[in-house]
Structure formats: C-alpha cells, structure tokens
Amino acid sequence: MGRSPCCDKVGLKKGPWTPEEDQKLLAYIEEHGHGSWRALPAKAGLQRCGKSCRLRWTNYLRPDIKRGKFSLQEEQTIIQLHALLGNRWSAIATHLPKRTDNEIKNYWNTHLKKRLTKMGIDPVTHKPKNDALLSSDGQSKTAANLSHMAQWESARLEAEARLVRESKLRSHSLQQQIGSSSTFASSSSASTSASVLNNNKPEAPPPPPPPPSRSSLDVLKAWNNGGWLKSSEGSGAIASTVGVSGDLESPTSTLSFSENAPQIMNAIGGENNNNNNDNAMPMIEFVGSSGNSSSLVKEEGEQEWKGYDSSINTFSSGLHEFTMAMEGTWVHETLRTNGSHDDIVEEGFTNLLLKTNSEDPSLSSEGGGESNNGDGSAGHSDFYEDNNNYWNSILNLVNSSPSHSPMF
DNA sequence: AATGTGAGCAACCGCAACCTC
DNA sequence: AGAGGTTGCGGTTGCTCACAT
C-alpha cells in the first residue's frame, strides 16, 4: 500500500548541499549529462536521491541560471503572468529567462504577494481587497480560479471574435468575387459567421471547455497568428465555439462568477444583451477605473514601486473589472485603422509594461521611454487602450514564447 | 549579550502527468 | 490498454540570517 518511494531513502543524505556534492553533481552532468536522475546519484557518487539531484541541478547548479535581485521588468512580468496564469510557476518561468520556477515562486511569496497586499490588492485574485473580501468565506481561491477562467474566457471570446471578423471579411470578399447568392452556405467558416452574426444557436453543442491553461493559450496563439482560423476552416469548430454567443454551454463560460457574474454573464449570455446589437460579434471590453492608490503604504527601499501601484491597479482593475459585451464591433480602434493588430502585438510586452508605467513619471526612467498620451488620470479611452495593449502584450508573449515552453 | 521574531530561500514531499514497455 | 517507472510541478517546511527588544 502507498506509494513506492522515489528511491531507496536508507542512508541517503538530505538537507543543504555541500560544495563537494555540488562539484560532484556538476562534474558528472557536465561529462555525462544527467541521463536518468534515478541512476545518477550512484554513478556520480552522491548519497542523494535522484530527485534531490535534479532539484539541485535545475534550481541552482544549472549554468544558465541568473541569480540575484529581480528587475522591475521581471517583477512586472511575474505579476501580470500570475494574474493570467495563477500559481503556475513553471509556465511563468518560461518567460523569465534564467529564472527558475522555484525562485519565482519564492520571490512571489516573499515579496510580490506582500506588496500587492499592501497595495490593497488581493494577490490571489488580483482584485482590490475590498472586492476580495466580498467573498468572505474563504472562497478566494475559487474566486481566483474563476477570475482566471473568466480572463481566459474573455481571451477566447476575443479570439473567436477575431475569427468571425476574418471570416466575415473573407466572406465579403468572396461575395464580391463570386456573387452574393450562396456565399455563406459555401463556406463553413463563413456560415459560421453567418450563424454568429444572426445570433443563431449552433447545431452542435460546444466542445468541452478547455482547461484554462494550455488550450487557452493555444487559443491566444491561434488568435495571434490566425492559425486557428486556418485549422478550423471547414471543420465547424468555429461554429461550435463561437456558439457561446448564442448558446453558451462551455463550463468556462457558464460558471457562476461570484464577482464578475454580471459582466461576464452579460457578455457571454446570448439572451442577456445580444438583443441590443445589430449583430452578434463579440466584443471584449476592458472597463476599469483608473487606479488611484497614492495613499498606499510602501515598503522601504521600494522607490521603484512608487507610482507603480497605479499601474498595478490599472491592470488589476482591467483584469477584474473588464466586461465583455456583445457589441456591434469588437475591433480596437487601432486595429480598425491599421487593419492589423500585428502592429500592436509587435510592441513588446516589456514596452507595454513600461508604457503603462510611463503614466507615472517616477517610473519612466527604466527603458520604454515611449509615452502614451495619458495624462495620468487614464480616462476611459486610454484605459481601454492600455488594457487592449495589455492583452496584446500577452499575445505577443505567447507568440514569442520559446518553443520548449510547456505552456505555449 | 541573550533572546525573540520575521524574512528569505533552499530543499523536501507528494501528486499528477508523461513515458516506456 | 494498462501497469510501472520517471519526471515535472506546486505546496510546504525548516534552516539561516538579520534585526529588534
């Protein structure tokens, strides 16, 4: 009964590694590679369990590890990715070169979590504390999950919307080419568009909900590179997925969001507000109040964070207050004018962060001197733009993520 | 100087996913 | 297909050190 131990623990050393042990491990791996971790300790002459060796190597001895203080950019990346991914440290670590998941996890738990807490933001839900307190009976984790899922759902819907838009464009061009009589019926994606545009319920039930992890990121990736459209054409996948706008059955969509419920359900529940729209193309809109937390307490030695709270609040608000509405058009103004969101996506994630920060002069020194037009008060349009940039930056992140990334 | 306390971090534990046969 | 082994991951523990009392 019970699990078999990962290795024979009799006589195996535990606890901190000595320099001699490090040297042995290092020398062995440099010469032979780690091979089977289970067999490594014996071969390397170490009285350690393979698991311990692996951990020591991956978290400490590996040559491509950067140690020391986290930069502001790294902190911001962690915070935003945590808002997006939750406690999935390995996924976060793939976007922080030379940082290990363990280090990021520790840094989060010892620094960032506390800072967010001091700033009045629940580090679990990334919501302002007051909101988090609403879920009084220890449901913050659930709320966090729902929040994350809501974010994914929003991203997914936006991806779907993009597909619809592209399908629509395609169908229109097709119409112009071959006439208007049978365009929608001749293309599954176009018919999908028609279905969505007419707010029809899909014939097939929606596919099972993607977990808010890889598949969600796949959606983002597909969204970003259009691959999903290609892969979905003719498959009816769009129809079933986009069907959320009409007949939402995806659990990720039908969850009873305790806090975001009104917005989320308004956004994704077809019967709720699609009626007001000329067509049913989904729109994802970030609605957030400009953060103003100047009174928040700062830790000593956190000058970097002076004013950073505003950007934190900005993105936090964007995350937790964004609403998705089925509007006539979802396309961001920039997309409309440029006809492509690649221009936005090309703006790096870091730049985005810094750009956001540039609202605060005290933070403008670290790179990304490009300034937005914000006056610091972040009016609705600016805020909207910032949050779109935020998500686009995430997409950029997704798109540019290393091929070995377990997530992307 | 001795003791208490909290922060920071390395390492461990156990679960789950993945791989191999 | 499924059983057993391996690896990855996230939560947690416990040690060390700095600072306060």
TrEMBL record:
Coiled coil: none annotated. It comes from Vigna angularis var. angularis. Residues 9-61, 62-116 form the HTH myb-type domain. Residues 203-213 have a biased composition (Pro residues). It comes from the Eukaryota. Residues 9-61, 62-112 form the Myb-like domain. This is Uncharacterized protein. Residues 136-145 have a biased composition (Polar residues). GO terms for cellular component: nucleus. GO terms for biological process: cell morphogenesis; regulation of cutin biosynthetic process. PANTHER family: MYB FAMILY TRANSCRIPTION FACTOR (PTHR10641), TRANSCRIPTION FACTOR MYB16 (PTHR10641:SF586). It is found in: Nucleus. Residues 120-147, 172-219, 357-381 are annotated as: Disordered. Keywords: Developmental protein, DNA-binding, Nucleus, Repeat, Transcription, Transcription regulation. GO terms for molecular function: DNA binding. CDD domains: SANT. InterPro entries: Homeodomain-like_sf (IPR009057), Myb_dom (IPR017930), Myb_TF_plants (IPR015495), SANT/Myb (IPR001005). Residues 180-195 have a biased composition (Low complexity).
